Amino acid sequence: MTGTTQPSLDDLRGNAHVVSLPLVTRFRGVDHREALLVEGPEGWTEFSPFLEYDDAEAATWLAAAIDFGWRPQPAPVRSSVRVNATVPAVAAADVPGVLAHFDGCRTAKVKVAERGQTLSDDVARVRAVRAAMGPEGRVRLDANGGWNVDEAEHALHALAEFDLEYLEQPCATVAELAELRERIADWDIPIAADESVRKASDPLAVARAGAADLIVVKAQPLGGVSRAMAIVADAGLPAVVSSALDTSVGLSMGLALAAALPDLPYDCGLGTASLLAADVTRAPLRPHGGTLPVGRVEVDAALLRAHAASPERREWWLARLERCFALIED
User: Does a structural domain hold residue 3?
Assistant: First the structure.
């Protein structure tokens, strides 16, 4: 069905560009980020679920891409958004080099609980971040659900000295988050839920269970800006808007969400274009003075050609697009 608010599959396929962008440092086990970009009536939009996600989960990302490219977005209440630096699970010695890519950011999110690493690696990394950020800097941690409750409590004993802003998704399940939050109730370390919101069949379960102090929301995984805003409103918890290592096009979707939320008490995780060694626009959304501007991104045709994925990867993405589109239609 072709119209102003819903493209047909032919509309999407006929205008699809699949890119493979190199990363500055290895992240989530990859050194390139693939994405499918398409231009709709409202502007450029992005479909980039991670490669390991199944079609049912990826279809929600496609719904978000269609929403952003074909439908007007909620009105912004701010023209710029403060963002944090993101520190992958690198060696402590590499921390200053990573932070150098995030101009003026007063907050750093540090990956911990990386598979194959130890708590000593985490402590060294977080210590290096705290040293680089200084006493006034804000340091938050993201474990991506990598610990059980006992491991998380043990890790916090080792990491609490670094004056943590919050701990994101320390455990995988809502029940574990609730138990950990009860155990550390007197520690003044808030718990944030990410995967328990964006990968859950019921994104509000974590709020009803009292398992988190704040939630992390991402526009693509939650089905678009308007749906993510509704989840924040229904959860009744402070929200941090974050990204999924998007291109600048995907980041502009996240910025539209952050710009439209009535309250935005935390710096947002939308500065991740600084982790890309290349992008699809001549004005990539990298932080300057710790902020990003709100607005649509102009994609450069030459950069699309320069970073086009191989024919085999393009066909893989187009097949995925077709399967996900069928799920949306159903």
Answer: no
Answer yes or no: are the C-beta atoms of 100 and 133 closer than 8 Å: no
Residue 2 is assigned to a structural domain of this protein:
no
Concerning whether 111 is annotated as a catalytic residue, the answer is yes
The answer to whether residues 193 and 97 belong to one domain is: yes
Kindly give, in sequence order, each residue whose CB lies less than 8 Å from that of residue 53, ignoring residues fewer than 6 positions away.
61
* 1 part of a folded domain: no
Tokens standing for residue 95: 């921390």
Whether residues 188 and 58 share a domain: the answer is: no
Catalytic residue among 17, 33, 101, 111: 111
- Confidence band of 3 (pLDDT split at 50, 70, 90): very low
Asked whether the predicted pLDDT for residue 330 surpasses 90, the reply is no
The half-sphere exposure of 291 on its side-chain side, counting CA atoms within 13 A, is 9
User: What pLDDT is recorded for position 82?
Assistant: 98
Instruction: Write down the catalytic residue from 125, 198, 218, 286.
Output: 218
Task: Give yes or no for a contact between 35 and 48, defined as CB atoms under 8 angstroms apart.
Answer: yes
Is residue 215 included in any domain, yes or no? yes
CATH classification of the domain holding 199? 3.20.20.120
- What pTM was estimated for this model as a whole? 0.95
The DSSP-derived string for 53-106 is --HHHHHHHHHHHHHHHHSPPPPPS-SEEEB-EEE-S--GGGHHHHHTTSTT-S
Domain extent for 68: 9-73+301-329
Q: What is the share, in percent, of the chain residues with pLDDT greater than 90? A: 95
- Predicted confidence (pLDDT) at residue 26 exceeds the cutoff of 70: yes
What are 18's strand-pairing partners? 36
End-to-end CA distance of the chain: 13
Distance CA(215)–CA(194), nearest Å, equals 6
Question: Which neighbouring-strand residues pair with 17?
Answer: 37
Residue 25 has pLDDT above 90, yes or no: no
Number of domains into which the chain is organized: 2
Which neighbouring-strand residues pair with 254? none
Q: What is the side-by-side strand order in the sheet with 43-47?
A: 17-27, 30-40, 43-47
For residues 1-17, give the mean pLDDT.
83
